[in-house]
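Figure 2 data, in text form.
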Amino acid sequence: MEPLKIGIITQVRVTSTRLPAKVLLSVNGRSYLEHHLDRLGRTGVPVIVATTTNFHDDVVVEVCTERGIPVIRGSEDDVLSRFAGAAREHELDGIVRVTSDCPLIDPEIVAAGVDRWRSENDPDLYISNCLDRTYPRGMDYEIFSAARLYDADANATLTADREHVTPYLHQNRSGELRLLNLPWSGGGSQYRLTLDTADDWKLLDALIQDFDATRLSCAELVAILDAHPELAALNAHIEQKKLGE
């Protein structure tokens, strides 16, 4: 039997609302998008970028083309259709969904999730590490089958389901879908290692410039924030946007 073909699809757009063009901001001579793609590249799993047809995202295509990373372009608001299109174009059996505002996502954590999903060999299994929050924000991933993605693409009608890709899978699921959360005991669930606001940017800049954070694991990043509460305080007040906002 052929091994399951799994790919990481990361969604990228320049026209973010809270911090416009955030993925193109640079630190240590590289954009946050490049740092994000570097981290994903270390998983050993193929990476595909799903961006929009908006001309502002032409620069995203340029960055990816220079790195040899495939790109699919589609609707700015219907992100679910973008994912389904990417999965079909690359003939994936399984999809790892991540978002580009996670420049320090830990490749070993993602790879471990992929290994678990592959070993289960169950197209009705949805795996995530954020169904219950045990990791810092910025380490999140979801893994599910292409069959489930195509079903969602065909049947999801709510705007929020199409914008946020996976709610239809895990909230409107039939009885066959099995949800599995992969938690960890390393702490740090209160921390934000994501890039959504100017204060998130301040923290990430400090971690990368002063601690070489792009080389560090999630556990090492949490240890730094535990030891430096003044850094964690930079974005501790930020509230995560809710679905539909």
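Caption note: The longest strand covers residues 6-11.
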